[in-house]
Design goal:
Layout: E1 5-10, H1 15-20, E2 44-45, E3 58-69, E4 75-85, E5 88-96, E6 99-105, E7 111-116, H2 118-122, E8 158-163, E9 169-176, E10 182-187, E11 192-197, E12 204-207, H3 209-216, H4 226-229, H5 233-242, E13 251-253, H6 255-268, H7 274-279, E14 284-287, E15 293-301
Antiparallel strand pairs: 1-11, 1-15, 2-13, 3-4, 4-5, 6-7, 6-10, 8-9, 9-10, 11-12, 13-15, 14-15
Length: 302
């Protein structure tokens, strides 16, 4: 890429994410073997930057979430991508799992009734009478926050994290329904999208607002450092460089290489959980806008 590196960030393992993580077909030739550091790095190169107009420009639209209606009349959500390949456009519409729950609150912001996909979101049933903040810790104390309107007249959307039964934080979107004191909690566990970062200072130069808001809570992260979202990103790059990875144009660093580099970083820093990170890598720690820690998978194309 001429003006930056593409990051494919994934909140889960959807079909679209796996599809877009593969090298373009024009470079998937037997003569172009994967370059590996020790047999497990899995780095490979794709076409150099500034390729002719006849070649693919890659992803043109990434990760927009659109409502869909199925043949049987049921409604759902889909992730919408557009890729250019060999002068044509490939349209990818992948149905994604959206878990939705409705919480009715009393005057003290305790849960009075609940419906929807509670188990997939929180990993447990909700006890009536519990505080909404035990489920969504960073939600504003005053629900009038959700009475705001966007410039286009749409109801305010809050991007927070929910606290699961296992103590983990998961990104979610919170809106207020037309019913009094009822909140709609929506979780997209398999959302994926791209960000373009500057190689000079690692600032974000481009991203999809729907994706970045759903995963990190920021609708417009442009101008921010990627290290604000993934604090260890710069140190992980240093580990990769120390392992003799040359960030030349077209290099693709897959997600398992990032996980491995983060595990090595943890061991070099002497963290107490370094062994568990190395044996069971679960992604990279990231920071949500509400201050909570979340886990993401990362792939990078230089």
């Amino acid at each position: 890429m001429a003006n930056g590196s593409k990051l494919l960030l994934v909140g889960g393992a959807g079909i679209t994410a796996r599809l877009l993580s593969k090298a373009p077909s024009r470079v998937s030739k037997p003569s172009q073997r994967a370059q590996t550091d020790d047999g497990s790095g899995g780095y490979y190169r794709v076409a150099p930057k500034n390729h002719p107009p006849t070649k693919s420009r890659g992803v043109l639209l990434c990760g927009d979430i659109v409502p869909i209606q199925k043949r049987n009349g049921t409604v759902g959500s889909a992730s919408f991508w557009v890729m250019e390949k060999r002068g044509g456009l490939i349209w990818v519409v992948e149905e994604i799992n959206e878990d939705v729950a409705l919480l009715s609150l009393d005057e003290d912001q305790n849960v009075s009734s609940v419906s929807g996909k509670v188990q997939p979101i929180w990993g447990q049933n909700i006890t009536l009478g519990c505080s909404v903040r035990s489920l969504v810790p960073r939600i504003p104390l005053e629900l009038t926050y959700f009475d705001r309107r966007s410039p286009s007249g749409q109801p305010a959307v809050g991007h927070f994290t929910v606290r699961t039964a296992g103590g983990f934080s998961m990104p979610a979107t919170v809106t207020k329904t037309s019913a009094k004191n009822e909140l709609r909690i929506s979780s997209l566990p398999h959302i994926a999208g791209m960000m373009v970062i500057s190689p000079e200072d690692l600032t974000i130069t481009s991203s999809n607002s729907v994706f970045s808001a759903a995963l990190f809570g920021y609708e417009q992260p442009g101008g921010m450092s990627i290290c604000t979202l993934i604090p260890s990103f710069r140190d992980i790059l240093a580990v990769l460089i120390n392992d003799d990875v040359e960030f030349t144009d077209g290099l693709v660093v897959p997600e398992h290489s990032f996980k491995r580099a983060y595990a090595l970083l943890a061991m070099r820093e002497g963290r107490g959980n370094a062994a568990s990170i190395f044996m069971r890598p679960s992604g990279l720690p990231a920071k949500h806008r509400d201050g909570s820690d979340i886990m993401v998978d990362v792939q990078m194309r230089v």
